[in-house]
Amino acid sequence: MTLNLGTTAPDFEADTTHGRIKFHDWLGQDWGLLFSHPKDFTPVCTTELGALAHLKPEFDKRHVKLIGLSVDPIAKHALWADDIAETQGLAPNFPMIGDTDLAISKLYDMLPASVSGDANTRTAADNATVRNVFIIGPDKKIKLVLVYPMTTGRNFQEILRVIDSLQMTAKHRVATPADWQQGGDVIIAGSVTDDEAKTIYPDGWRSPKPYIRIVPQPK
User: Fold this and answer.
1) Quick check: is 45 catalytic?
2) What is the pLDDT of residue 135?
3) What φ, ψ does residue 201 adopt, rounded to 5°?
C-alpha cells in the first residue's frame, strides 16, 4: 500500500505499553501523531522519545494524541523507558506499540511486505526505513508524512508548527507561506475567488501579484 496524503490511515489492533488498542477507536475525534523507531535502545531515538515526552503538553493543547512504534516487544520498551528517563529527564508518557511481527511497519509501508523473520534478530540497520512520522486528522486521513534517516533526529518544534498550520487551514480557507509561525500573515487559498474573498475579508488584502493575496492570520 502506498500511503499518500489524503488517504485513510490504515486501522489496526496492537499491544502497547498502555494496553491493547484499536487505532481508529483510540484516536476518536482527536488528531494523531504516529512515529516509528527501527529498534529499542538506539541513541537518536532515545533523545527523540525524551524530547516528545517533554513536549506532550503542547500536543495535548492541540488535541493531538501521541503514539510511538518499535519492532521490539513491550517488555523491552519498559526497560528502554528507564534509560530514557535517566538520560533525557522524562520517560515516554504516551503509548508505545510493540510491532514484533512487523505487521504495522508493513501496513504503513515502512518495510517491504516480503520482509520476514524474528524482530529480535533484526538490527536497527535492517529496519532503517522505520523512521516515519504520520500526522492523522480527526477524519482518519493522513495529513503529513515525514521520513527521517537514522542519523538525523526529528524536529518536533517543526512538527508542532505543521500541526498549527494544518489545524488552522482545516478551519479557514487559507494557506501558510514558507517559514510561517503562529500569528504570522497567511495567504488566501487559490480556491477562493476574489468576490468571495471580499466577503470574507472586507478590509481587503495585500497582493504583490494577482495570485498572491496576503491577509492577517484568522482569529
Assistant:
1) yes
2) 98
3) -125, 75
